[in-house]
Design goal:
Blueprint (H helix, E strand, L loop, with lengths): L6 E3 L3 E3 L21 E3 L7 E2 L12 E3 L19 E2 L12 E3 L17 E3 L7 E2 L12 E3 L15 E2 L12 E3 L18 E3 L7 E2 L12 E3 L23 E2 L12 E3 L21 E3 L6
Parallel strand pairs: 2-3, 3-5, 4-6, 5-7, 7-8, 8-10, 9-11, 10-12, 12-13, 13-15, 14-16, 15-17, 17-18
Antiparallel strand pairs: 1-2
GO molecular function, one term: pattern recognition receptor activity
Subcellular location: Endosome; Membrane
Protein name: Toll-like receptor 9
């Protein structure tokens, strides 16, 4: 009864998924200290208040996925805008994992410095500036996928200002798939080990695009210059004369273990691309033209 209408699952998880909730439930005072994870997946919560999670002193993981989806991702294609008050998450200084994906938010909300994992995928966030993620020095995993593509159209590209992510000094995994990007964002943190940029429109790569990312272990640039004769979804044809891949684009990535170049309209392979990649164990060249 302490967690109704949700259910409590050891250790510390309260499951409130698929309950048609329109607001964050309040739990009895005696039980609040036991909650370390709260999942509110697929409800109808459109407004988050400063006080919604402040009463949960040990909350570490919060899932708010798919409460107020953008119009293109909504089953009925209704537009929805989620309102997040300024102290909603700042009031939870213990929070380590936050999933806000599939919600109609257009700006990054104020976030606690304790965050390690953050998903802002399939939202309406189209601009990342130097202040957007400032202070998140513990952040290791950042997912911002699908904020501008055929199912979530925006008519432009995700804009990542030069250096917008540079101060995320512990970031090891960055995923920016399906965002209409035309270039690798500049001044990414050198701590990155996983960089996922598939299904954008990056048709040109040179050494300077990845210059400081010497710790990279996995790089995915698949589907950036597509051949549309076999596409199962809306497709932008690779321009004539592209892709352009500089012979030494990857030469300084000596820690690289996985490289994805699939679906990029490549006609041939240049052996120089792989010079210096002594640790490479996985190479995906599928759906090309050779």
């Amino acid at each position: 009864p302490a967690f109704l209408p949700c259910e409590f699952r050891d250790p510390g998880l309260v499951n409130c998924n698929w309950l048609f909730l329109k607001s964050v439930p309040r739990f009895k005072a005696a039980s609040r200290n036991n909650i370390t994870s709260l999942s509110l997946l697929s409800n109808r919560i459109h407004h988050l208040h400063d006080s919604d999670f402040a009463h949960l002193p040990n909350l570490r993981r919060l899932n708010l996925k798919w409460n107020c989806p953008p119009a293109g991702l909504s089953p009925m294609h209704f537009p929805c805008h989620m309102t997040i008050e300024r102290n909603t998450f700042l009031a939870v200084p213990t929070l380590e994992e936050l999933n806000l994906s599939y919600n109609g938010i257009s700006t990054v909300p104020a976030l606690p410095s304790s965050l390690v994992f953050l998903s802002l995928s399939r939202t309406n966030i189209l601009t990342l500036g130097p202040a957007s993620l400032a202070g998140l020095h513990s952040l290791r995993f950042l997912f911002i996928d699908g904020n501008c593509y055929y199912k979530n159209p925006c008519g432009r590209a995700l804009e990542v200002a030069p250096g917008a992510l540079a101060n995320l000094s512990n970031l090891t995994c960055l995923s920016l798939k399906y965002n209409n990007l035309t270039a690798v964002p500049q001044n990414l943190p050198p701590s990155l080990e996983y960089l996922l940029l598939s299904y954008n429109h990056i048709v040109k790569l040179a050494p300077q695009d990845l210059a400081n990312l010497t710790a990279l272990r996995v790089l995915d640039v698949g589907g950036n210059c597509r051949r549309c004769d076999h596409a199962r979804n809306p497709c932008v044809e690779c321009p004539l004369g592209f892709p352009q891949l500089h012979p030494y684009t990857f030469s300084h990535l000596s820690h690289l273990e996985g490289l994805v170049l699939k679906d990029n309209s490549l006609y041939s392979l240049n052996a120089t691309w792989f010079h210096g990649l002594d640790n490479l164990t996985t190479l995906d060249l599928s759906e090309n033209l050779f």
